[in-house]
Known about the structure:
Layout: H1 2-18, H2 35-40, E1 44-47, H3 55-67, H4 74-77, H5 79-94, H6 96-111, E2 118-122, H7 131-143, E3 148-152, H8 161-164, H9 166-180
Parallel strand pairs: 1-2, 2-3
Helix pairs in contact: 3-5
Family: Belongs to the TMEM53 family.
Pfam families: DUF829 (PF05705)
Subcellular location: Nucleus outer membrane
Amino acid sequence: MLRMLALQDEGLFRQIAQHPERTSLPQPPKALVPLSVLDSAKGIVLDSAPARLTPDISSRGLTAALMGQPAAGIEARHPHLTRTAKFALQPLLGFPLISTRMHEVWQAWDVVAPVKPQLYLSSQADALIPPAEIDLFKLQQAKRGVPVFSREFEHSAHVEHFRRYPAEYREEIEAFLAALT
Length: 181
């Protein structure tokens, strides 16, 4: 089922890329991951996530990836490239099919996702995903009745926790998994 969702997204991207002049494309068929698949999961681990995809986050991430550099300070090192990426991404992210899909993903967290324990691995040093956004999401999930666990790594960049603190990261994952059984 996840493969089918990915194929739908790929088809959507191809439609947009081949027909940029279109303002409305046919909606892809709605397909949710079957609850049986989600129900079989014992817990969820989120590393440096989640965050809403904004032009600001996207432009920093894209610039960092293109330049092969960390996201921290990328706007200061490459201000023109970051601003250009943000300018280019803003209308793309606002395209109805893309914004609808992003909305569906966020709605799924509140409607479809089963109430299963969630472990959040994050850092205040994350220059790509605002830590406050992860904290807000954790609170929203806790309000849904989701058991929320978290570990904040000091001085660790976006998705660098395992690389920077491998032993602590492994211990945190193992402790979370042990608590699930």
